[in-house]
Amino acid sequence: MADKLNAVKGMNDILPPESARWEALEQTVRDLMGRYAYRNIRTPIVEPTALFVRGTGQTTDIVEKEMYSFEDRLNGEQLTLRPENTPGVARAAIEHNLTYDGGKRLWYTGPMFRHERPQRGRYRQFYQLGAEALGFSGPEVDAELMLLAHQLFQTLGLRNIRVELNSLGVPSERQAHRAALIAHFQQNADQLDADAQRRLETNPLRILDTKNPAMQPLVEAAPRLLDYLGDASRRHLETVQSLLTACGVTWTVNPRLVRGLDYYSHTVFEFITSELGAQGTLCGGGRYDGLFEVLGGKPTPAVGWGMGLERVLELLKEQAGASAVPVPDAYAVIPDAAALARAMPVLQQLRAAGVGVQMHAGAADGFGSFKSQFKKADASGAAYALVFGGDELARGELTVKALRDGGGAQTTRPLDAVTAWAATLQSSAPKETPGSSRASLLPSDHGLGVPSSAPDQSN
């Protein structure tokens, strides 16, 4: 016997019925993106390694430690499985001149790859949802994208999510802050851990992102970038804040929020929950006006965010409890192989009319008894059983038996007029497996838990 092969560590199969939760989430996303006039873009999973070295930043953890990179054996090209998709979207926009006739609002979803320690909601292959607005320089688009993420969480019924934001200003302001930051950390070099010492000269802003508890007092005492912002940068941030407030979104300024990538400028933000342990960031993003030039394009303002779908689904499980999963409208009871030639065309007509039908499938020793088939029909969650018995088929009919409501009521239907009665099998009630709590997969009757007291919205 050949050795058993398993999936790569940190790269997971998504199986039924869990896949139904993914499908429902993806449908919600598609509907919402359309309402905000964002259009879908699909970029390759494999990109040139240089795209992420230049676009994400050579000194970031992603590029230094986490990318799956390899050499193309045919031509020697250096390639990488995408660890994120913002550089890929920017590359596609440059390559196809997408913004030649004005700004573009885009969204995407798909697998990303990072070689890091797998943990809850954080895997080596993970699925990311992203939204990018290209060619818009005004702070109103920063606010619009944050409102889009906020609306998605509200539509999903997720609660207790806080919004943190900050400003990284423009390059000249960051350079002045960088110099002050280096001086501060050099004066306290004995308190720096090995990672911070390595980053001191290459990317000192990333030291503010440290998770080392021993360094938190030093980080808290460090110069704040907010204090180095000029008037234009302050107005940009204040406009974003005022628009969020006008739309009822609660926010807090976090002066230590820097995000982990090199391409950000002006607004940066995160949507955070405390209900998933250490992996509490559900969505993060910001403005990246300099990325297009770094990738060889014309100066193009841009802003966007990325969201880990595994974390969103984990939070849905925590807050929504039992979940509905799709079930068929009807289950076809097939007495023997001789009935298939009459039954299967009927099932095809029902499916074409929008009815979900699961057909009983036989085994080597036959199709089983009616009793055993009805047990499977009941377990399927279907509302009706369609019985293709020999007597019924001889009369050109089938029997429809109610499995849920109606006390097992039965009626017969003609085989030559399927479309006339197909709609009677479609239930308007939520489709769910037997024994579920009828909790909606994507409830919409909860907000994000706006606190009764006003948040800290000062700079």
Automatic annotation (TrEMBL):
Residues 426-439 have a biased composition (Polar residues). Signal peptide: none annotated. It is an enzyme of class 6 (ligase). It comes from Variovorax guangxiensis. The keyword Phosphoprotein does not apply. Residues 426-459 are annotated as: Disordered. It holds the Pfam family HGTP_anticodon. This is Histidine--tRNA ligase. PROSITE patterns: AA_TRNA_LIGASE_II.
